[in-house]
Each structure stands twice: as structure tokens, then as C-alpha cells.
Amino acid sequence: MTAQSNAGVGEAGATVTRRLVIADMAHQYSVAPAADAPALVAELAAEAGDGTRAMEFLRPEQTASKALTLVRATGQTRPLSPPAAPLPTWSCTHFPADFTAYLDGALATEDGIPDSAGAGLSALGPLLLLRTHTTASDPFTEVLICARYRANGTLFVRTARFTHAAEIDLADLVARALEYRTELQDHMRIESNAYINCEEDIEIEQKVTLLDEASIWSLTKDMWTAVEAGEFPGFITYPGYELTRWHFVQHNFEVTGPAEEVGHYAFQENPGNRYQLKMKKFPADAVRRQETFRKGVEVPGGDFEAYLAREFPALSFRRLPSFRRTRFDVNVHSLATGHGFGIETDEVTVDAVGGRKLRQVEMEYLETYRHEGLDATTIDDEMERLTRLVESYLARAGVASERNHYSKLSFLRDCVATGATVSAGS
Fold first, then answer.
1. Is 31 in the same domain as 168?
2. Average pLDDT, whole number, for the chain?
3. Per-residue pLDDT tens over the stretch 398-415
4. C-alpha angle 382/385/391, rounded to 5°?
5. What are the tens digits of pLDDT across the range 65-84?
6. Is there a single domain that holds both residue 183 and residue 311?
């Protein structure tokens, strides 16, 4: 059996053949392998075009297949009789019940004696997603390995790609993919090691300031729904971290000197009479600003000035009004580049000027999944694409907005200019 079964011909009608390889977890983790455990290869819906993917996320319904093949440990292949209609092959941690019933029948031999390969199926789980491009001048397959299981789907990240003949045998394709799976495998085996920040201690964000009164919670919920519905092409919500909520009471100081250190220091209240100190260094509002943190800071008596004088004697500060900040984030990842961003909708309230508010949607770079072909230079372009999608969404929602780099520091300066009072208790 060759691996070209549903691949497109000719660049004009290019398609990518996608195969889910459900195999023994021993291929990825150092656990005892199941004796003679086969791999089950499910051909998924073909993808139009010839684009590559840094990552893919398969929901249960997206694992549906009508073309299934059993690949034995010996390299032999056995195409299974197709189900009457495509069946989802994986859900959460198990084969779905309908698919299990189908397998029971499909694995029986013609004389009714069960196929012995069925005994090893309980050891299997989604391991690889193979994306085979056969319309290119040099046919190749992208190897994406499982990086995250969640109740609503399975995340795969590209760890390698390799060229091969267009008529490669399916068993050979799987065998070669299993050889390449070890690339970046040590990162993917622990979720917290699977991604990196490409620019440590640098905040990268675009800002869209809302000009209308708006409920940031309603906007966040609706934006999440829009991403899930495919209205943000090429982006998925981050599995297991789709929506996050934040609240800060923040005490603010402008760093006024020396010139090379100017910026914004902020004490964010935490339960237990401790603070997180956020330190930003930037001479002017911009896409990139240096940002570092101190966590678990103790400030006896709430005397922030004394703390700053003791810890940063070379800096001069100006106290600015305190504020309350609530923020709701829809966290997304780019399938093409692996970059993760927060769509962060926040509302800042300054009580010292009669509850004056600032509402913004910030598109902030968060992280990048480690993958073959990682390119940090694409962060800005992909963040720009996401920002335009958010602007389009806001326009459809009837919310007036303005793209700018208007920082919280600039907002606080404007508050002071319009009469905000600042005191030790502000």
C-alpha cells in the first residue's frame, strides 16, 4: 500500500494528505512497550493548499476517518474494511465507543477468528500527525508529535520534515517518521519545556484603545467564540489555557532619571501583604519595552517610597495615582508559526480622578512552541495579522477603536495633568 492515496496532483489543486498515527506510548516515553503493539493509521480530511504547519490541534470530530490501516511492528500493513461513514478515532484518552465497536468487527479475520493485533490496542494513543506534500517538486512529509492532551483535543507540534518518493509505502512512511520523532522529543515530553520566549525580558505588544463604552467581559467571551468558530484564520485558542482572568490593585511610580533608566515601576497587590514589582524601562511608548519582575516583595507599612529608595538608590521617581485593573485574556497560538499571543482586554479605573477609565485590547506576544523551522523574525508579522483580525472584529461588533501605543504610564501622566491627586494612600 502506498502513502499517496488521496494526495492532490498539480500545484493548482494541491492538497496535503494528513494521517494520524495512533501508536504505543513507548515510542515517546520510557515505559515498557506492549508486546507486538501495532500502529493504527487514520487518514484524515485532506487540507487544501500546500502550506506547512508548525502545529495542529485535533478535536475529537477532526480525527474522523474512513480510511484506516493497521501497521504491525513487523512492518506489515493491513487496510481495515472502511466504516459506513467516517468515525472519530480519538476522544480525550480513549477510542470513542462507536469506533471501538467498529474496530472489534474490522479486526476480525474472514473466518471469524479475531486479529491478535487487537490485544495491544489499549497501549495506544495519538503519537504523530503526518502531513504529506506530494505536489511539490520534492515530495516531503512534516512530522508533528503529540505535545499536549486535553479533554477537547490533542495538540501536535512539528519536530521534523523529510523528503521521500511520491509512492512511498505507508509502512516505510511510518517507520521513517518514527525515526524522526526524536527531534525535539525531550522538549515535548514535558509540557513546560515545549515552548520558549524568543525575546526574554522584552514585552512585545500592539495596543488598540477602545473609544466607546464597552463591557470587556462581553467582548472577551464573544472574541473567544469567534476564534473557536474559525473567524481568526490560522489561530487556535491555546488548549488548556484558552481564557484567563486577572485583577490588580496597582501603585505606580514613574522613573524620571537617569535618562537611560526612565520608565514605569508598579507594585501589584497580592494576597498576604506581598507585592509583585513590575519594572518597565522605555523612553517612549512603543511596541517593545524592557520588562522584568520581582515577586513576593514585602513593603512594611506600604511605604513604597522607602522601598524604592533602599533598593534603587541611583534612580529618581515620581509617584503617580494608583489604579484598579481587570483583564480578561483570550490566549491563542498561530498554527503556521507556533507563536502564542494573548488577546488581552483590560479596564483600568483611577479613583483619584472620579473613576476615570481606560479600556484597551492588547495583542501581546507570550511564547513560541519549539518546532522545526522556528523563526523568531515572524513574531511581528503574525502579531500584526492578529491585531488586524481583532480590529475587524471590533468594527463588526460596533465598537469604535484606535490603534496606538498608549501606555498605562501615558494614561497616568494625563490623569495627573487633569487634576488627579496623589498621596501615600492613593
1. yes
2. 91
3. 999 999 999 999 999 999
4. 140
5. 999 999 998 889 999 999 99
6. no
Q: Give the DSSP H or E segment for 217.
A: helix 216-228
Secondary structure E strands in 47-134 = 47-48, 55-58, 64-65, 67-71, 77-79, 87-88, 124-133
**Where residue 378 sits, what CATH number does that domain have?**
2.40.320.10
* CA atoms within 13 A of residue 267's CA, in its CB half-sphere: 24
| Longest Cα separation, the chain | 89
Could you give the C-alpha distances from 374 to 184, 237, 338, in angstroms and in order? 12, 20, 8
Amino acid code (one letter) for 203:
E
Element (H, E) at 188: helix 185-188
Could you give the CA distance from residue 358 to residue 210 in angstroms, rounded to a whole number?
8
Please report how many Cα atoms fall inside a 13 Å half-sphere around the Cα of residue 360, on the Cβ side.
21
* Nine-digit cell string for 134: 506530494
Q: Residue 175 and residue 177: Cα distance in Å, rounded?
A: 5
Q: Of 415, 265, 425, nearest to 355 (Cα)?
A: 415
Question: Where in the sequence is the domain holding 359, given as residue range(s)?
Answer: 202-418
d(CA 215, CA 209) in angstroms, rounded, equals 14
C-alpha cell at 383: 502579531
Burial of 260 (0-12, 13-18, 19+ CB in 10 A): exposed
What does the pLDDT look like over 222-241, one tens digit per residue? Answer: 999 999 999 999 999 999 99
Provide the number of structural domains found in the chain: 2
CA distances from 103 to 283, 295, 346, 406 (A): 64, 53, 50, 58
Sign of CA dihedral 206, 211, 216, 220: negative
